[in-house]
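User: what does the whole thing look like in 3D?
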Amino acid sequence: MQATDDSQAARKAWLGLLAKAPGGEVAALWSAADMTPAHSVLRAPEIGAVMVRGRAGAVGAAFNLGEMSVTRASIRLADGTVGHGYVQGRDRTHALQAALIDALMQTDVAGQVESTVLAPLRAAATDRKATRAAKAAATKVDFFTLVRGED
Amino acid sequence: MYVAVKGGERAIDNAHAWLAEERRGDPAVPELSVAQIREQMALAVDRVMAEGSLYDPDLAALAIKQARGDLIEAIFLIRAYRTTLPRFGASLPVDTGAMACDRRVSATFKDAPGGQVLGPTFDYTHRLLDFKLAADGEAGQVAEAKPLQGPTPHIMGFLDRENLIQPEPAGDTTPPDLTRAPLELPASRALRLQALTRADEGFTLGMAYSTQRGYARNHAFVAELRIGTVAVEMDIPELGFSIEIGEITLTECETVNQFQGSKTQPPQFTRGYGLVFGMTERKAISMALVDRALRWAELGEDDLGAPAQDEEFVLYHCDNIQATGFLEHIKLPHYVDFQSELELIRKLRRDAQQVREAAE
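Assistant: Here's the predicted 3D structure for the full assembly of 511 residues, as structure tokens:
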């Protein structure tokens, strides 16, 4: 059970990484990796919308905030492994590549996909986040109290 | 009444061709790319996404280009496009407490954990035209500091711990969706929030301002305003678990309002809430104020007859696409309608004249 949970958590992590990565970055790394396997397309890339929800008062009852565009695709490798891709935006190639990567990550070549595609994507995402966080931190106000005027 | 009349086709085609030429402007000036609009007109893009109710910066930028910068026209294009998309499902409610904040300020607690982070704000600029931007527009070096560690807790949570603020009961019932079912009154708060987050910024601002000036008497403090990115997570049936399907920028405003208590509620602070796509600070604050004003009935307050308390007035008039659709339709041919009006006026005048002549 633990192993199942761990593998599910790992899959959840790479699918999330692929969904949020810019399509261009995925495409560049994927074509450089040159790993496209034989596969059949189960679900051709499809552009759609997901209704994003929020909570009243941040913590209360759910409400519908608005939609976002999402593209999804599914493929099957020759050995029967199925891969799913759900990515933000309307890039069909991105969704298809995410599905291929998802499938390969469940096979013996997972290590190679991880090091050539996922690790660089993760590093780029971490870097972007860190840069924004550093810029935000530089705008943090450091209050200091001047001489108070009570007397 | 509308009657089909032929003969306008050539004029319409020519009008559209001229529109395209005017959109391009002087060909000696380089054409704007969609990417340029997305990157450099980012707040216009955010407004179009928020009121178009579809988070997709590239599409919003394209709509702005196509609409020649007319944001309501661009919002119209986005609304029309979104109806063509199949709905894959709904996300889990976003966790704004886990937001990676670009900006986070509180007007109520100076020393809030996590601090006051200004972010890329217009506040404290002098609102003087910067002629350097007309010359080159290259940005200078941006300062960086050690990123703040740990989560940025919601400030409202501190008041909540002391029971000084009206509780916000969590619930996971499926919220009503006004894009799927017609808006019916009285509306639940979930439905009001959906209508307000996509409402026209100007209308919402005007309504919110009216509450500050005394119509509905609600004096709001911004307990917290935060802008940043959150992950969007959705259950995927074919996987059997949820995954993150993207990341969006949101603006969230939580207001706290003094409240003397009512027949049903003890004295405590009450909340108004605004959550809007993109960096849309003015809209999010406005939304929170209008949300609070509309809550008078559930909090046991008196109906003061203020426009911002009237949910029918607010919800039926806040949507700029509905409003502009009805407003602008009156410029379309009403020849037959008007003919009958003309006949009627002529008849009334004839009758009135006869009465006058008979009297003389």
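In plain terms: Chain B has 13 helices and six strands. The CA atoms of residues 344 and 350 of chain B lie 10 Å apart.
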